[in-house]
Amino acid sequence: MTANITLNADRVAGTIDRNLYGHFAEHLGRCIYEGIWVGEDSPISNTNGIRNDVLEALRRLQVPVLRWPGGCFADEYHWKDGIGPRGDRKRMVNTHWGGVVENNHFGTHEFLMLCELLDCAPYINGNVGSGTVQEMAEWVEYMTFDGVSPMAELRQANGRKAPWKVPYFGVGNENWGCGGNMRPEYYADLYRQFQTYVRQYGDNKITKIACGPGGADYRWTETVMREAHAKMDAFTLHHYTVPGPSWQDKGEAIGFTEQEWFTTMERALQMDELITRHSAIMDQYDPERRIGLIVDEWGTWFNVEPGTNPGFLYQQNTVRDALVAAATLHIFQKHCKRVRMANLAQTVNVLQAVILTEGERMLLTPTYHVFEMLKVHQDAELLDVHLQSESYELEGRELPQLSVSASRSSDGRIHLSLANLHPTRSAPLKLAVRGAATEGLRLSAVELTGDAMDAHNTFDQPERVKPRAADALVLESGAVHGSVAPMSVTLVTLQS
Ligand code: AHR
């Protein structure tokens, strides 16, 4: 059956915050160290210690916002250990992630320099689990106060005269788990207390972010919203796509079956229900939608690559990950009136990374290509799309075969992205555009697909999965006809 897609170009359904395309980098495995930071003396080409190949690749993605330093690491991180001359910085054990020594060479100055080099907004996650109110207050003062104060003077003594802009600050991470195993009642009180001292200095306006639930923990949302909604600007949600039968066996990153492919899609699409239900609770306390929902950890989580440190969470990234990325970004866009930011876990070498490195070598993953193709949706107007298509069925279970989202950017171009979740069946389609003049419209399209369900890039074959022109789509009489390949992500651009 031909899928019928109607794009209503005159119905704007919201604005897609660029921050939905955000990223997350934790002190975990080889994400920060080697993946981003190699140090000034490294033989790997770098800018002030940050590797240039990764920097350039991230620049091309137009990363809008980057979250740091964790994750679980955030609630064990003491920021003063990461300032001053690097040789004098305290070493600590990274207890969550492999028990390795953390030398604190990448700290506040290095992170904020990275954000400046990427021209992205920093999102700093503070420590509630094992930190103090004073420590959090001083960190904010250190980074953002433009005046005479002990922390501003310390910053200047460490070489940075002007304060930075820090628009996003998280008050704890997963405080229901690794961030202190708290009950929501207790966290809500701590949140109210800690956030009091997250000061707004000068014209630095901080969006204060409260720790939200993991997955379907609606009691957490209900309680924290009830007790603390007036004191927060944003609230988080974490949801990972884990296709395996248990946390001990999360499923393989490559060499999986179609059942595992299907389960992966099914679990990724649960994001829609999670956002819908958490938003409904938020609506009760915040009907005006002042408070943003921030999905600051999401992505696939598989068994680590055999032979690697289990605490480093290194996994390969295939065309399946690309499909998860596209379908999830579409869900965020659909909910853009409530969801204001999302941060894929994690940028380099960890979980659903956009970049993998091996010493001086680097590759772009299929997920990277999806973020690059779909970046045109950033800050664009979300357009209403109506989709009628077949479903993808397997052993009595059913999923939509296609996932779709469309937007109009400020230059007037219309972009429609399509993910075909079926690994073996192409999708014939007709895309009708209504509510806009179609004479003189021109079409271009690119697609990303693979020659196997687990097609991926390696250091020896780094371009096996990459976008190519999609020539199976044509524009005729104001409508797009053709078909999209199995397991593909396609970006259609219409411009006059
Ligand atoms: O992203 C890996 C970990 O997953 C984060 O540190 C933690 O917040 C979550 O449980």
Automatic annotation (TrEMBL):
Task: Please state every residue range assigned to the domain named Alpha-L-arabinofuranosidase C-terminal.
Answer: 296-488
* Domain of life where this protein originates: Bacteria
Which leading EC class covers this enzyme?
hydrolase
- Gene3D superfamilies, per the entry: Glycosidases, Golgi alpha-mannosidase II
Example GO molecular function term? alpha-L-arabinofuranosidase activity
Entry EC no(s): 3.2.1.55
**InterPro entries in UniProt:** Alpha-L-AF_C (IPR010720), ASD1_cat (IPR055235), GH (IPR017853), Glyco_hydro_b (IPR013780)
Record's keyword terms, sorted: Carbohydrate metabolism, Glycosidase, Hydrolase
State which pathway it belongs to: Glycan metabolism
Q: Which GO terms describe its biological process?
A: L-arabinose metabolic process; polysaccharide catabolic process
- What SMART domains does UniProt report for this protein, alphabetically? Alpha-L-AF_C
- Give the reaction(s) catalysed: Hydrolysis of terminal non-reducing alpha-L-arabinofuranoside residues in alpha-L-arabinosides
Pfam families documented for this protein: Alpha-L-AF_C (PF06964), ASD1_dom (PF22848)
Assembly and interactions? Homohexamer; trimer of dimers.
Q: Which PANTHER family does the UniProt entry name for this protein?
A: ALPHA-L-ARABINOFURANOSIDASE C-RELATED, INTRACELLULAR EXO-ALPHA-L-ARABINOFURANOSIDASE 2
Identify its protein family: Belongs to the glycosyl hydrolase 51 family.
Protein name, as recorded: non-reducing end alpha-L-arabinofuranosidase
Name the species this protein comes from: Paenibacillus sabuli
